[in-house]
Amino acid sequence: MILLEPHNVIIHTTLTEKLAKPSSLDVQFVDYDGVRFRLSTPERKTILLLSMNIRCWDELVRYGALNILRREYGALLLPQGEPEYNVSLQIDLEQVPADSESREAFVMSIALFKRNVFAAPFESAFQAQKQLDGTTNQGELMEIHYRDEEAIYVQAGSDRVTVIFSTIFQDETDRIFGKVFLQEFVDARRQPSIQTAPQVLYSNRDPPLEIRHLPGLRISEDIGYVTFVIFPRHFNKPAIAAATISHIQSFRDYLHYHIKCSKAYMHSRMRHRVAEFQKILNRAKMEVATTERKTASGRTMVAR
Q: Is the pLDDT reported for residue 187 higher than 90?
């Protein structure tokens, strides 16, 4: 199956093109999870403004999003986002490194703008877990309501970090496909080569115990809860922690993307099979029916 990349392809492609040939620009687009972006050149062709709007911005700021943005982008981060957007970066194309390797690294860092913002609660939980190691206490339960009626819950424990996704399946078919995919996550972990992967739990309708006390949780057949149990080995080194964050925060988009791809594939196979049956019917020859009739004397007369 295809893995969704953590970076934004439109930002990466557009910025690469503008570095090669600066020109005026004003593009607005939306990512899988409803995050809105705008790329524009309000002053001159070599000054690029990248703005982002996230519905859960206030929650992410509470968990340290601004600290991560200052660490990753420094002077590129504007004190205030442009109107209708939460945060903005101002990029001077003339100040981008000249050598190809450094330039590609810079472009990729800009394309990871959203990923770095959403990394805040995960980095906070990883740090809290190290402080709670050897105790019986639990860290703060962080809630990120990034979609209508859907959220991510992150909580550090003494020996693990628990991440819970709530997701809505629009119809019965999506629920069936989702259950099959999630069962594969459980079964795959039984293989010796990947037994060190995070534990995955799935519950339908009833929320997990970790969040059952929260007010306002809607209990319905079309809601599913996916729980990841992340152990210290999944974030004990900076590179490993960064990869864990990149993969897990895109899980919801990954799941629903492949549900839709599977449905599209099955529909295409069904249409192909119907077309083949239609060809067989078109080649078939209809036999002329024969009937027997009796004359007045009792003789048989065959009519065609």
A: no
